[in-house]
Structures are given as C-alpha cells and as structure tokens.
C-alpha cells in the first residue's frame, strides 16, 4: 500500500498498489507505521516527500470497502471508522519534526486532498491532476477536522467556498494562484524534481525539528486541538 525510502536526509513516502490509492484501514495503518518510522529517524536537516504512483495521488476514502458491509448501517459505521482512524494521520503530519512536501502527480480527491493539505507544501502537475472535494456532490458532510484544515490552511475564503460548496475541480495553475498549492509544473518528472529541490533546500536550514513541529502546531491551533495535539514551549536559541 505504501513504501518508505531514505535518500540522505530525505524521506520518500510512496503510495503504491492500485491506481486510486483509496484510503482504508490497511492504508491508514501503513501510513501511521511509516510516519512513526520517519519521526523516530528524524535528524536536523530531514524532510519528507509524499508521492503516489499512477493517475491519482489518492481518490479518498474507500467507499467500496464501506459498502461491502452489506447494509446501510454497516456502511455508515465503516465510513465513520475510517474518518476517525484517519485523524491520527493528520496529527502525525502536523507533529512531524521536519518540513513536509506533497508531490501531486495526479488527482487528489476528498480525503486524498486532505492528506495532501496536511503537508506544509503542495506541488502539482499543470498538465494533469486536480484538487477536488467530492462531498457536496455525493452527499456527505465534512468531519470537524476537515473543516478546520480548510479554514486554517487556505486563507482565500472564495477558494474554500468554491472547493467545498461548488465541488470545484481545481487544476494546478489555479491552485497556485489561489494559494492552495506552492507551484505547478508540466509532467511527473518535473513535479518530483521540484519537490526534491524544495525538500533539500528546506533541509539545508537544519532547523530543530521539535521547534519546527511546535511552531507548525501553533500556526494551526484549532486543527491541532481537534486532532488531539497539545502545544508546548521549546526554547533552544542559537547564541
């Protein structure tokens, strides 16, 4: 479902398997396990890049797995289970002691968009791939931490409205213009190369990882509180 590779100070987390990378209990467990490894091996200069193989970065929660429960109540319970189980993934990324970059070479829809937005930076393809919140189109409400993530990470209120209330499929150039993505490039190779450049440049700063994580949590206080993260003061000044 996903793999982890270490290249120098860079951690490369890759979603593998089927083309859509649907988020289900198995993938959630794999993500939490690998993010725990990343945190345990973090040093000054570390950075994380998350990428995916195929047409999709991720197409969101695995609704087929939910519906396989065989009843409406069972499907609803499975969906709620995925919603609650994914919250620790957002918490893990918010508290990771290093810069994080989501390299989107394909579509990021619904919870797949949430996964990307949980990173510090998003880099997209210009020629293929969109950001899309499908909830309004398929008739699902948004969990509290999804809403908090959008409020605190996307400053453009009209962008939030268009993504959440219009079901806008936002392409790379528009995402950059409206402050959702950091940059957009033509082609998969360019996206991955740009993501590595950014991660390496950030890693060269050799920030204290604990301080970096606490500043990040402080920047998104409501989201941090909802996903169960506390905030503390860390004082390690350079003299």
The figure for the number of domains is 1
Compressed to H and E, one letter per element, the order equals EEHEEHHEEHEEHHHEHEHHH
Number of strands: 10
Mean pLDDT: 95
* Low-confidence parts: none
* Coarse structural class: alpha/beta
Question: N- to C-terminal separation?
Answer: 45 Å
Helical proportion? 40-55%
Strand order, largest beta sheet: 1-2-3-5-7-10
Q: Kindly estimate the percentage of residues that lie in beta strands according to DSSP.
A: 15-25%
Provide the CATH top-level class. Alpha Beta
**Main sheet specs:** 6 strands, mixed
Rg on CA atoms, Å: 17 Å
CATH fold description: 2-enoyl-CoA Hydratase, Chain A, domain 1
CATH architecture annotation name? Alpha-Beta Complex
Task: Using the alpha-carbon principal axes, give the shape.
Answer: globular
Total of helices = 11
CATH superfamily: 2-enoyl-CoA Hydratase, Chain A, domain 1
Write the layout of secondary structure elements.
Blueprint: E1 2-7, E2 10-15, H1 25-41, E3 47-52, E4 56-58, H2 63-67, H3 72-94, E5 100-104, E6 107-109, H4 111-117, E7 121-125, E8 130-132, H5 135-138, H6 144-153, H7 157-165, E9 170-171, H8 172-177, E10 183-185, H9 188-203, H10 209-219, H11 221-226
Parallel strand pairs: 2-3, 3-5, 4-6, 5-7, 6-8, 7-10
Antiparallel strand pairs: 1-2, 8-9
């Amino acid at each position: 479902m996903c793999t982890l590779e270490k290249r120098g100070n860079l951690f490369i987390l890759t979603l593998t398997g089927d083309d859509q990378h649907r988020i289900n209990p198995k993938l959630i467990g794999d993500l939490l396990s690998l993010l725990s490894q990343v945190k345990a091996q973090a040093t000054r200069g570390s950075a994380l890049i998350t990428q995916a193989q195929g047409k999709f970065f991720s197409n969101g929660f695995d609704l087929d797995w939910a519906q396989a429960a065989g009843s409406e109540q069972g499907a609803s319970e499975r969906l709620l289970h995925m919603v609650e189980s994914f919250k620790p993934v957002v918490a893990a990324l918010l508290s990771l002691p290093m810069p994080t970059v989501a390299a989107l070479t394909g579509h990021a829809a619904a919870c797949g968009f949430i996964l990307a937005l949980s990173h510090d930076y998003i880099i997209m393809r210009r020629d293929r791939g969109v950001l899309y919140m499908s909830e309004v189109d398929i008739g699902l409400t948004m969990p509290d931490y999804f809403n908090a993530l959008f409020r605190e990470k996307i400053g453009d209120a009209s962008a939030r409205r268009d993504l959440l209330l219009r079901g806008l499929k936002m392409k790379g150039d528009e995402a950059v213009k409206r402050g959702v993505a950091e940059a957009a490039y033509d082609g998969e190779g360019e996206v991955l190369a740009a993501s590595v450049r950014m991660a390496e440049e950030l890693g060269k700063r050799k920030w204290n990882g604990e301080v970096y994580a606490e500043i990040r949590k402080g920047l998104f206080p409501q989201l941090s509180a909802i996903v169960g993260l506390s905030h503390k003061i860390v004082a390690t000044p350079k003299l």
